[in-house]
Amino acid sequence: MMIPNDSNIFVVSLSVADLVVALYPYPLVLTAIFHNDWTMGDLHCQASGFVMGLSVIGSIFNITAIAINRYCYICHSLHYDRLYSLRNTCCYLGLTWLLTALATVPNFFVGSLQYDPRIYSCTFAQTVSSYYTISVVIIHFLIPLLVVSYCYMRIWVLVIQVKHRVKPELRTKLKASDVRNFLTMFIVFVLFAVCWAPLNLIGLAVAINPEQVAPHIPEWLFVMSYFMAYFNSCLNAIIYGLLNQNFRKEYKTILLSLCVSRLLLMETSKCATEGLRSKPSPAPTNNNVAELNL
Question: pTM to 2 decimals?
Answer without folding.
Answer: 0.75
